[in-house]
Amino acid sequence: MDLMIPWLLAIMLDDIVPTGDVPMIFIFGGIMVVCSVIAIAGNIIANRMASKVARDTTGRIRYDLYSKIMHLSTSQTDEITVPSLESRLTSDTYNVHQMVGMIQRLGVRAPILLIGGIMVTVAMEPILTLVLVSVLPFITVIVFKISRSGIPLYTALQGTVDKMVRVVRENAQGIRIIKALATEEREKKRFQDVNSNVVAAEKKASFTMAATNPLMNLFLNLGLTAVILVGAFRVNAGVTEPGKIIAFMSYFTLILNAMLSITRMFVNLSKGTASAGRIGEILDMPLDDTEDDSINSRNTVTEINKDAVKENIPHIEFDHVSFSYKGVKENLTDISFSLKRGQTLGIIGATGSGKSTIIWLLLRFYNANSGTIRIDGRDIRDMSPMELREKFGVALQSDFLFMDTIRENISFGRGLSDEAIENAADIAQASSFINGYEEKYLHELTIKGSNLSGGQKQRLLIARALASNPEILVLDDSSSALDYNTDAALRKRIAMRNKENNLNTTSIIIAQRVSSIMNADLILVLDEGKIIAKGTHEELEKTCDIYREICESQLGGGFVE
Amino acid sequence: MNNRGIKSAPPIGSNAPNEQVSTRKLKVLLRLGVYLFKYKGTLLLALALTFASNLFSLIGPQLSGYAIDAIEPGKGAVIFNKVIYYCVLMAIFYILSSILSYILSIVMIKLTQKVVYKMREDIFAKLMKMKVGYFDLNQTGDIVSRISYDVDTINATLSTDFIQICTSIITVVGSLIMMLTISPMLCIIFAVTIPISIFFTKYATTKVKPLFRKRSAKLGELNGYAEEMLSGLKTIKAYHREDTMTERFQVKNTEAIDAYFKADYYGSMVGPSVNFINNLSLSLVSMFGAILFLRGSVSLGNISTFILYSRRFSGPINEFANIISELQSAAAAAERVFRLLDSEEETPDIENASDLENVRGEVEIQNVKFGYVPEKTIIHNLSLYAKPGNVVAIVGPTGAGKTTIINLLMRFYDPQSGEIRVDGTNIRSIKRRSLRRAYTMVLQDTWLFGGTIRENISYGREDATLEEVKNAAKAAKIDTFIESLPDGYDTLLTDDGVNISKGQKQLLTIARAMLPKSHMLILDEATSNVDSRTEVQIQEAMYKLMENKTCFVIAHRLSTIKNADMILVVKDGDIIEMGTHDSLLASKGFYAKMYNSQFEG
Questions:
Q1: What's the confidence (pLDDT) of residue B370?
Q2: Statement: residue A494 has pLDDT above 70
Q3: Domain presence at residue B416
Q4: What are the two backbone dihedrals, phi and then psi, of residue A323, each rounded to the nearest 5 degrees?
Q5: Cα separation of B473 and B493, whole Å?
Q6: B247 vs B16, higher pLDDT
Q7: Would you say residue B496 has pLDDT above 60?
C-alpha cells in the first residue's frame, strides 16, 4: 500500500492536474488516504506476528539450550566453563531474539518495498529505473563485504565480554576476601583491563559497521543525481514527463529507506550470527555416553535373576578402577572394593586423595579409564543415567541450594510428599531450625541459601538425600560444618531409620572426622588416589599407621593452638 | 502527593507514584547526560559534524528542485546548463555529507565507548564499595546482567540515538524552514498531522515505558536463575533432575520473552502509526499542491521539492518513534544501573580517620549490640578484651551467630551501639582499608580467582617473590601438589577447575594468608575442608601463622581451641559462657556438654 501512494501522486501530477479537474483531485486524494489506513493496519498486524514469532523462536532456542546444558556431561561443562555457558544462555540468546524480530519485520518489508518500488518504477520509466538500479550491485557488494567481516569481530567481542563477566562474578563471590585484604584497587585495575578489551573489541566491530550507512547513502544519492540528469535528456527528447521524475524521487526515498533498513538488519545479523554460532556450538555438542538416556540397559538381568543374585553378588563393586581427569596424572589408581546391600562404607583420606572422585565415577559423571564399576553385578555403563542415578540420594560437597522454599529445596522437583520431606528433615536434624521459622517448610531461602549458616545448609542437603528413600545414600563430606553433637545425633538417627523401617540402604560416607565413619562396615583409607588400607575401625587402628595418626589427632589432644 | 518542601527520597526500588514517573525518567536521562558531558570536546565535535552533514544533505532536495524546474519546460526546452550545474553540485554535497557522516559515526562510537567504559568502571568501583551484605542478597547473575546487558543497551541507544535526535531536530527545523520558503500555504497541512504525531508519541511513551522496565527486570531475573542453576549442575545431575529444572527454567524464560514481546509489540506499533501520518500528509500535500499549482501559485519543481522535504520532515518523526522505544529501553536499563550506583554503600570513613600504625593487636569489644536488621538483635551485649597475642576462640552450635562477630571486627557491619577498639582507637575512626589490612583472614568459603596459582597465593602481598610464595605453599603443605602440575606455580586456575579439590583450594587460601605481615588473624573454620592428617601436618605452619598475632578462631573441633586464652560460647546469638577451657569444663555448662559429646561415637 505504501507503494501505491507515490504512484497515485504521479498520475495526479501528470495526468489530472493538467486537466484541472478538481473533483478528480479529491477522489485521488481520498484513495491515497484509504491506502494509508490499510497500510497502517497491515503493518501493525505484521509486526504483531513478527514479535510473536520472535518470541516463540527465542523461547524455544533458550529452552533447547538450557535443556542441552543440563544434559551435557560434567567433563563437557568443565571444558566450556560455567560463565561462558551463562553468557551464551543470556546475552547470546538475547542477540538472537533481536535478530529474529528484526529480520522478520524488516527482512520481509524492506525487500518488498525495494522490489516493489523497482517494479513500479520500471512500469513507469524503464530507462530511469535502470539508472537507479545500476547502483544497487555496488551497494549489495559493500553491505555483504562489511557484514561478512563483521561476524568474526562480533564473535571476538563476545569472547571479551565473557572475560569481563567472569571478573565480575569472581568479585561478587569473593567480596569478603577482597575487602579483608583491601585489594579493591587491584581488582579495579583487573576490571579495567577486561573492560578496555571489551571496549576495544566493540570499537573495532563498530568502526567497520559504521561505514555501511554513509556509503550506501552516497551511492543512492549519486544514483538519484544520475536519474535527474538522464531524466533531463529524456524529457528534452519528449520521452518522459517531469511529473514522473518527481514520483521517482518519492520512490527513491522509499528505496533508500528500505536499503537503510536492510543495512541495519545486516549489522544486527552479524551480531546475531556470531551469537547464534556460539549457541549452535553448544547445541551441536555430541551427547556424551555418560548422559545418554537412550542407551537402554543392555544385558538386562531379569527380575528373578536379580533377586537370586542379591545374595551372592555385592551391591556395589569397584573392580580395578583407574581414572585421570585430564590425562596428566592418575587421580585414582587401581581401586577395588565391594560392598553388600545395607552395608556402610566410610572413606577417609587426605585432601586431594581422590575421595570425591570415587563418588563421581560411581554416579558416572566421568567414565573410568580402566576397570569396571558394578551395581548388583551390572556394569554401570550398561545402565541409562536415569536408571543409575535414581538409585542414589546424594549430598555433595558443593552446597547447592537455591532461591525457593525449604520444602522445594528438599523435594528438589521430585514431587515428594510432605510426610517424606518432614521425616527426612527430622532425621537430618533440620526440623528444629525449620520449625523455628514462622512459615516452617514454606520459608523462603535467598540466593544459594545465603540466609542459612553452613551447618543449616548441610542439614538441608542431607535431608534432600534422604527424602526419597534411596537405595544408596552418599554423603560426601556433608557434615563438616556440623558440631559434634548434631553430627552424632544425625548418625544415630540414620542408623535407627534403617533398622526401624527395615531398609536396606547402602551408605557411602566421606568424612574428615573419624567419628563420622568409625562405625562403618568397611573403611577405605585413601592416599594420592590409592587405597592404602581397608578394613573396620578396629582392624585399621591396629594395622594402619596413618589411620591411627588421624584418630589420635582427632580424638583427644593432638592439634592444639 | 509529596510535599515538595520536604526532601523525601523514595525508598530504593519502591514503586513511586505516577506523579513521580516523569520526573524520575527525566532524572535518569539527565544523569545519562552528565556522563556525556564528561566528554564535552568530543560531544561538541559530534554536534558540529551532525549539523554540517545534515545541512549538506538538506541542500540536496533544494538543488534537485532547481534541476527539475530547469527540466520543466519539457520537450526540447530543457536548460541543460542549469541541469548539469545543479547535478554536479548535488553530487558534491552528497559526497561531502557522506564523508562527514562517517567521521561523525567514528566520533560517536569513540564517545559512547568512553561513556560505556566509564560507566562500567563506576559500577565496578561501586561494587567494591558496597556492603558485603549486598552480595548475599543479590544474585551474581543479576549484577552481571546490569554491568553487561544493561550497559550495552544504554550504549546502543547513546551511539545511534543521540545522533538521530540531533539529526532529527536539524532536519525537522531545516525542512520546515525550506518548506515555508516554498509555500506557507501548504505548510498548513502540518497543522493537522503534527498534533496527531504528538498524540501517538505521547501514547507510546506512557504505554511502553513500564513494559520496557519490566523487560529489563525479567531478563535480570532469568540471568540470576540461570546462574544459580548452572552452579549446581552436578547436584542436579546426581538427582537426575535435568528435565524438571529445565521445565522451571522454561517458566522464567516464558516470563522473560513475554515481557520482551509486549514491549516489542507496543514499541513497534509506533512506527507504522507514524508512517500512516506520513502518508496522510503526503496525500494532503499532493491534493492541495495540485490545486495550488492550478492556481499558478507554485511550480511543479516546488511541489517536488516540497514533497521531498515533507518526507524528510516526517521521516525523523518516524525515526523519533523508533528512538523513543529505544530510549525507553535505555532508560529502563539506565535506571537499573543507577539504582545499583545509588544503593547504600559502606558508610565512608570519617573525615579525619587515622591509619593504624605499628599495630600491637589489642582488641577490645565493649557493650556491643548488633542485628542485621534493627528489629532482630543478634548480639545483645558483648564485651571482651584481647591482649596482643591472645587467642580468642568462638565456639557454638551451627547457626549460632559466630560469623557475625567476625563481620563486626572487620567492619563489614557496624554495631548498633557499643564500641570496638583496636589498640585503644575506636575502629570507626580508623580507615577501613587500614583496619582490614591489619587483619589476615582465612574463611571457610575458599575464594580463588582466575589467575595463576602464584598470583592467587601472592594476592595479599603483591610484591612477594617466587621464593616467598614457594615457602608459603610449603608451609601450607600444598607445594608437592603444585609442583606435580605441569605448569607448576604458573598453572592457570579456571572456574570449577576439576583437578583441584575443595581441600586443596583451602590450603591455597591458607598459603595466601601466610604472606601478609599483619598482627591480627581471623580463622573462620579455616581448616574445615582439610583432612585432619593434613591438618596435623600444617599445624606447625598454623602455629607460625598465629605467632605474635591476636587471633580470633571459629572452629567446631574443640581440640583445636582448647588452649585458647579465652573461649566464647555462643548460642542463639548470645554469648552464654566465657572463659578458658579448664574453667569452662569445671563450670559444667554447655561447653562441657559439647566437649564430652565428641567422644560419643
A1: 83
A2: yes
A3: yes
A4: -155, 145
A5: 16
A6: B247
A7: no
Residue A277 covered by a domain: yes
The answer on B483 and B433 residing in a single domain is no
How far, in Å, CA of B200 to CA of B268, rounded?
12
Q: What is the mean pLDDT of residues B553-559?
A: 68
Do A242 and B486 lie within an 8 Å CB cutoff?
Answer: no
- ipTM of this predicted complex? 0.71
Statement to judge: residues B433 and B496 lie in one domain: no
Judged against a pLDDT cut of 50, whether residue B5 lies above it is answered with: no
Q: Do A229 and B83 touch (CB under 8 A)?
A: yes
pLDDT recorded at residue B599: 52
Q: Is residue B576 part of a domain?
A: yes
Query: Which amino acid appears at position A345 of this protein?
Result: L
> Among B206, B167, B217, B199, which residue's Cα sits nearest to residue B51?
B167
B454 plus B307 within the same structural domain: no
Q: Are residue A278 and residue A318 in the same domain, yes or no?
A: no
pLDDT value for A10: 67
Angle between helices A184-210 and A136-173 (to 10 degrees): 170
What pLDDT, on the 0 to 100 scale, is given for residue A134?
80
Contacts of A231 in chain B (CB under 8 A): 71
Q: Is residue B280 part of a domain?
A: yes
Q: How far apart are CA A441 and CA B167, in angstroms?
A: 60
> Do B418 and B286 fall within a single domain?
no
Q: How do strand A332-339 and strand A316-323 relate by DSSP bridges? A: antiparallel
Q: What is the CATH number of the domain that holds B303?
A: 1.20.1560.10
Amino acid residing at A395: A
Say which residues have a Cβ less than 8 Å from residue B219's Cβ, sequence separation at least 6: A90, A94, B145, B149, B256, B259, B260
Is residue B352 in some structural domain? no
Within this chain, do residues A304 and A264 fall inside the same structural domain, yes or no? no
Of B237, B260, B275, the CB nearest to A97: B260
> Distance (Å, rounded) from C-alpha A226 to C-alpha A219?
10
Based on the structure, what is the number of domains in chain B? 3
pLDDT, one tens digit per residue, over B464-487 is 888 888 888 888 888 888 888 778
Q: What is the CA radius of gyration of chain B?
A: 35
Judged by CB atoms closer than 8 Å, whether chains meet at B495 and A83 is answered as yes
Q: What is the CATH number of the domain that holds A427?
A: 3.40.50.300
- Domain shared by B249 and B107, yes or no: yes
Distance separating alpha carbons of residues B91 and A109, to the nearest angstrom:
29
More confident residue, B491 or B528: B491
Q: Which residues of B touch A171 (CB under 8 A)?
A: 124, 127-128
Q: Is the pLDDT of residue A301 over 60?
A: no
Domain span at B465: 444-517
Of the candidates B314, B342, B370, which is a domain's last residue? Answer: B342
Main-chain dihedrals φ then ψ at residue B361, nearest 5 degrees: 95, 30
The residues near A441 (Cβ < 8 Å, ≥ 6 apart) are: A405, A406, A407, A410, A418, A421, A422, A425, A434
Asked if the Cβ–Cβ distance from B447 to A43 is below 8 Å, we say: no
* Mode of pairing for the β-strands spanning A530-535 and B439-442: unpaired
Band the pLDDT of A6: cuts 50, 70, 90. Answer: low
Distance of CA A287 to the CA centre of its chain: 15
Instruction: Return d(Cα B436, Cα B412) in angstroms, integer.
Output: 10
pTM of the entire structure?
0.66
Query: According to the model, what pLDDT value does residue B127 have?
Result: 82
Residues A226 and A151 in one domain: yes
- Residues B494 and B432 both lie in one domain: no
Q: Name the more confident of B15 and A502.
A: A502
Domain that residue A495 falls in: 397-469+482-504
Read off the pLDDT of each residue in A54-66 and give the average, rounded to a whole number: 84
Q: Dig out the grid coordinates for B138 from the structure.
A: 543479590
Write out chain B residues lying below 8 Å of A326, CB-based.
498-499
Is A109 domain-assigned?
A: yes
- Whether residue A496 lies inside any domain: the answer is yes
Report strand pairing: B363-370 vs B417-422.
antiparallel
Would you call B196 an interface residue with chain A, using a CB distance cutoff of 8 Å? no
